[in-house]
Amino acid sequence: MHFYLSLRFFTTSACLLDFIFVAIMTSQYYKNHLLNQLYNLRQGHISIQNYIAIFENLTFSSDAGEHRSQTITRFVWGLRSKIKCVIIIGSYALDTVEEAFDIALK
What we know:
By secondary structure, the protein is mostly helical. It has five helices and no strands. The chain is elongated. Helix 1 (2-39) runs antiparallel to helix 2. It has one domain.
């Protein structure tokens, strides 16, 4: 009986460890997936409002941990060429990504 209880406990512990491993790997895979989406995000044919919403969601969800200037650069370089040129040629000194959002919306 003692052997049975030990084996049962081991099986339960092993299942718990398997569950924890899968949960960690799944969350890491999900985070990597979100980062990949963020790094490859381009405005394309979507509206600027939708692009901003998707960008904000991915930035928040992926917890990229980037420096503010990297986030601003990533946002600007994902914009359509016309909008990107307005921001770059205008030589705006952007301190926050929200300022980039406001300029892109104009």
